[in-house]
Specification:
The complex is a heterodimer of chains A (about 260) and B (about 270). Chain A is of the alpha/beta class and about 260 residues long. Chain A is about 30% helix and about 25% strand. Helices cover about 85% and strands about 0% of the residues of chain B. In chain B, helix 5 packs across helix 6 and helix 8 runs antiparallel to helix 10. The chains are: A alpha/beta (about 260), B mainly alpha (about 270). At the A-B interface, strand 6 and helix 3 of A face helix 7 and helix 8 of B.
């Protein structure tokens, strides 16, 4: 049996005396879209910092394709909160950033991203500065910068958190379409229940700090989601259920169990 | 077709609004000059005490050759000292950014250097380094170096943490992170520092000349004062003010050229 793409095994982390993550275990299969859903400040972003090797866990192991993460050689393309576009670089040069850091020549990097501008709805904006683009377009440029790095897995850290509700809904639809086409292996961190249900194959629900996995939910809804009444109703039921879990006053005793919410 | 028209139109509109912004300031300065002129006319105050602005301008024109000859050394000292200061501040800012401990060691020294009164230091520097160009350059550097260094350091620190997180997730080493994120992030701070420092630089050069020089606006002012010619003192002041404004304008121009992304309309939603 092939090992999962990503496997976290009993990861714990603390800032000083403050425990942030407590024995987090999760897996992501190749081509799977997994969301991590939790209240603000629950350590979701800390998880990404562990994966991008900005910090190291005090306990537990992370394996990528069956190997320890340290031997996997930066397998992640990371998309931070907000867009983190460089205001001084034109859109085309923002999207080539990852390639340039990898050592590709600027001209080659540009040639590589240019054909993708149409698909990302950025045609004609190559020479514009980020400040001239709308929030949604900036996020698409940031996603383009992320996927063009051609890494085995994407890490999306609340990518639509700063957008207005309407733009966000549009971006979620668009991202789902893109994902259906490309089948990236992706891990999304969010506190938006609807977003998680709309996009994910599977959701891990975290408790408030110190974060533990309190539920794991498989979303068996057909894609594209949110288009027909039946799927919408089932999605709404799952959302309500997850919201109940998140708003329950005490979930410290919650036992992680695997459920098939849509069955 | 209409694109260039609208672009020209927009340019014209922005130019007019710029002039509109300047109008109140222009009006205030003109009023002050008029009050001054009126006072000297009607109070009968002696021109050796308070010359009328019209007299200052007339004398400035009369002595234009002498003023010009004395402006060149001042300009020379200002630009040389300032250039050296900016280069040194930049180099040190980079070093200090990579070695934070050095910053903690050096910054207090620089802060102390800023507390030294120029009136006391200028004659000493002239005493030590003579009447040539060197003491002027040193004094200009002394007054401009620290503001530039602080501006750059603050600029590096203003880098968005998410940008750094993004770059390190891409595997960028520290020096690449500096070049790709920290240095460009510091540009607005650098130019803000440049605009302020360039005015200090002129003052520093004039002060150094005042303390002792063969030629320059500072020594010209001193001589005019000693000859009871306040009109010529003020004429030299006029020249140094014009010089400062020109250098300030150059700094603003350099800023606009170096940071083209701040010039485009920031409407964040072009034809969606």
């Amino acid at each position: 049996m092939t090992p999962p793409r990503l496997k976290l095994d009993g990861i714990s982390y603390r800032y000083g005396d403050l425990p942030v993550l407590e024995k987090i275990s999760m897996t992501v299969q190749p081509g799977e879209f997994v969301s991590i859903l939790g209240p603000s400040g629950s350590g979701k972003s800390t998880l990404f910092r562990l994966l991008t090797a900005a910090i190291t866990a005090e306990a537990g192991a992370i394996a990528f394709d069956g190997k320890p993460l340290t031997e996997a050689g930066r397998p992640f393309a990371f998309m931070p909160q907000r867009d983190a576009l460089m205001p001084w670089r034109k859109i085309i040069d923002n999207t080539t950033l990852g390639l340039e850091v990898q050592g590709m020549r600027r001209r080659d990097a540009r040639a590589r991203v240019t054909p993708l501008f149409g698909e990302f709805g950025l045609d004609g904006f190559e020479q514009n500065y980020p400040a001239e683009l709308s929030g949604g377009m900036r996020q698409r440029a940031a996603l383009l910068r992320t996927v063009v790095q051609d890494k085995p897995m994407l890490l999306l850290d609340e990518p639509f958190g700063a957008l207005d509700a309407l733009t966000r809904a549009g971006m979620q639809r668009w991202l789902e379409e893109m994902w259906q086409k490309h089948r990236w292996t992706a891990m999304l961190v969010t506190h938006d229940v609807r977003e998680a249900v709309h996009l994910s194959d599977r959701i891990y629900v975290l408790s408030p700090r110190p974060a533990k996995v309190i539920r794991e939910i498989v979303i068996d809804l057909p894609r594209p989601r949110g288009r027909d009444a039946d799927t919408l109703a089932r999605a709404a039921a799952i959302e309500a259920d997850i919201l109940d879990t998140l708003l329950k006053p005490d979930h410290r005793n919650g036992i992680p169990d695997r459920e098939h919410a849509a069955e | 077709m209409s694109f260039s028209q609208t672009r020209n139109g927009r340019y014209l509109a922005s130019l007019l609004s710029h002039i509109g912004n300047f109008l109140p300031a222009l009006f205030a300065v003109a009023s002050l000059v008029l009050i001054w002129e009126g006072y000297t006319r009607f109070s009968g105050v002696s021109p050796t005490t308070l010359p009328a602005p019209s007299r200052v301008v007339a004398q400035a024109y009369e002595y234009r050759q002498a003023l010009f000859d004395n402006t060149l050394p001042t300009l020379h000292a200002t630009l040389t000292g300032f250039a050296l200061s900016v280069i040194a501040a930049f180099l040190l800012s980079v070093i200090v950014d990579f070695v934070p401990r050095l910053k903690r060691a050096l910054f207090p020294v620089f802060i102390i250097s800023q507390t030294l009164p120029l009136v006391a230091i200028a004659p000493l520097v002239v005493l030590w380094f003579g009447f040539g160009l060197l003491p002027k350059i040193l004094l200009v550097a002394l007054v401009t170096f620290f503001p530039m260094l602080v501006a750059l350091s603050k600029g590096y620190e203003a880098t968005e943490p998410e940008l750094e997180q993004l770059l390190s997730s891409m595997g960028a080493p520290r020096w690449k992170l500096f070049g790709l994120a920290r240095l460009p992030s510091a540009l607005p701070f650098f130019f803000a520092g440049l605009r302020i420092s360039i005015t200090y630089a002129v003052v520093g050069a004039i002060f150094a000349e005042y303390a002792g020089a063969a030629k320059g606006l500072g020594i010209y002012m001193l001589n005019a004062k000693n000859n009871f010619r306040p009109d010529l003192v003020l004429a030299a002041v006029l020249v140094s003010a014009a010089l400062t404004l020109c250098l300030f304008g150059l700094a603003v121009l350099a800023e606009r050229l170096a940071m083209p992304w701040t010039r485009r309309p920031q409407d964040g939603g072009r034809n969606l």
